[in-house]
Write a structure and sequence with these properties.
alpha/beta; eight-stranded parallel barrel; two-stranded antiparallel sheet; 9 helices; 10 strands; binds phosphoenolpyruvate; binds manganese (II) ion
């Protein structure tokens, strides 16, 4: 590829057609505004909250605490993609109402997953940032639908997707007319079994080079172990990430979903202090 807007790079071999996502299309970098929170700007943005919305009480307790610790956006799944159809599938519409209540109470914007185009109207009525999960990174119909929206999109990397495929998935949303895309590295599937995923921190500097879109990291799904999350969060910031998305629960041992990788409220508070020190130490921005 010789075009100036190509994402081709000496470090990549595959020819690529992700021209709107390419760094050259916006050399200065894109800042995505999530209801007044700038992602990709001068400050690291941390999104935090439970894997799934379980109850209004749990969500509010976690939201209040993570906000106090410095999280800027509240996460929580209302529609949950679960490996087993017998697992808790999320509170669905009721979960969206709890998220809206938590936003009203805390002022934190909401990131929540939309799994299917048929849910887009309902989720859009609540979400400030539409999460496309790993399992849907190549659901092109859904990508086209959120491309028609003006709500920002958090696109998570497919667990077996190359960075070239990831950028082409983002390209679908951009091509649809929605310029507000944030990329999320959340770990890939490898031969390693001691962790849930292999968090590919190589992806962070590589993506920052190839694309102008903000890049955040999910050390919760990336490791599967709460005890590893603060260190990998710090490593992600050291690698140049624009932010983090972290699972936090008021009582991880009794969480309905992903408790093993969820930080307690205190652990999250300590993680935030560490992350701030790392950012200062490396002269982040
Ligand atoms: C999540 O963030 O809750 C989630 C399901 O993540 P992923 O799509 O990365 O597995
Ligand atoms: Mn989860």
């Amino acid at each position: 590829m010789t075009s100036a807007s190509s994402v081709s790079d000496p470090a990549t071999t595959a020819p690529t057609d992700a021209r709107l996502a390419a760094r050259a299309a916006h050399p200065q970098g894109t800042v995505v505004d999530v209801r007044g929170v700038a992602v990709g700007g001068e400050a690291i943005v941390v999104m935090a909250g439970p894997c799934a919305v379980e109850s209004r009480e749990e969500l509010l307790a976690t939201a209040t605490a993570v906000g106090r610790s410095g999280a800027r956006i509240l996460r929580g799944g209302a529609f949950k993609p679960r490996t087993s159809p017998y697992s808790f599938q999320g509170l669905r519409e009721a979960g969206l109402l709890h998220l809206a209540a938590a936003r009203a109470e805390t002022g934190l914007p909401i990131v929540t997953e939309v799994m299917d185009a048929r849910q887009l109207d309902a989720v859009s009525a609540c979400a400030d940032l539409l999460q496309i999960g790993s399992r849907n990174m190549q659901n092109y119909t859904l990508l086209e639908e959120v491309g028609r929206s003006r709500i920002p999109v958090l696109l998570k990397r497919g667990m077996s997707a190359t960075l070239d495929e990831f950028l082409h998935a983002a390209e679908y949303v951009l091509k649809g007319g929605n310029p507000n895309v944030i990329l999320c590295e959340r770990g890939i599937r490898t031969f390693e079994t001691s962790t849930r995923s292999t968090l590919d921190l190589n992806a962070v500097p590589m993506l920052k080079r190839l694309t102008h879109l903000p890049v955040i990291v999910d050390p919760s799904h990336g490791t599967g172990h709460a005890w590893m999350v603060p260190r990998m969060a710090a490593a992600a910031i050291a690698a140049g990430a624009d932010g983090l998305i972290v699972e936090v629960h008021s009582d991880p041992e009794n969480a309905w979903c992903d408790g093993a990788q969820s930080l307690t409220l205190d652990e999250f508070d300590q993680m935030m202090a560490t992350v701030a020190r790392v950012a200062t130490a490396i002269g982040w921005r």
